[in-house]
Amino acid sequence: MTTVFETIKRRRSIGKMTDQVPTHEQIERILEAATHAPNHHKTEPWKFFVLGGRARVELGDVMAQALAERHKDNPHLCSQASLDKERNKPLRSPILIAVAAEAPKQANVLAIENIEATAAAVQNMLLTAEELGLAAMWRTGDAAYDPQIKRWFGLTPEDHLVSFIYLGYPAIQPAERQHIPTASKTTWLGC
Ligand SMILES: Cc1cc2nc3c(=O)[nH]c(=O)nc-3n(C[C@H](O)[C@H](O)[C@H](O)COP(=O)(O)O)c2cc1C
């Protein structure tokens, strides 16, 4: 039986995936794991958009349009090659899950706490993907913060796209990663 700690240590971002599509059961398990994340005021602020097949092509088209719009005053920053690159991004994996944090609906809820809860949900998803033997990668980039992209998902400008999770089966082995020792990040007080 693998422990949570072992799964945490084994998880790595994997950017290259095969064409094999994860099953609905696998995706549903990943979504369920997300909903067990801690969240203040029990807001459960997350929303998930599972994209496969043509939906990824449609998102890529909107991402390319949004890129062109962002650079409309400096079109030289927006070559055909960069538009094509942007359009192809969602095709890097067979499934893409966009994870959003809703803007607060109650006065006592802080936007940052909804984002934090959703980030915890994303980590649950990455760990569950790891446990299922899938490859996953948390990506953002300018598209995640673009109001036009949010609108395409039916989100408001105040909602936050916390993660595009690229999901599939690994086509590569992740490279070694060196961690900064916790000692240099930690201050012990009173113990
Ligand atoms: C908020 C956030 C945004 C990220 N966005 C990107 C991204 O746009 N592109 C990318 O290649 N990786 C992105 N990553 C993944 C990191 O590059 C990756 O987690 C880091 O290199 C550590 O590698 P590991 O996940 O294998 O431990 C993002 C991670 C987080 C937490």
From TrEMBL:
Its cofactor is FMN. Its EC number is 1.-.-.-. Residues 8-169 form the Nitroreductase domain. Keywords: Flavoprotein, FMN, NAD, NADP, Oxidoreductase. It holds the Pfam family Nitroreductase. InterPro entries: NAD(P)H_nitroreductase (IPR052530), Nitroreductase (IPR029479), Nitroreductase-like (IPR000415), YdjA-like (IPR026021). It comes from the Bacteria. Coiled coil: none annotated. Belongs to the nitroreductase family. This is Putative NAD(P)H nitroreductase.
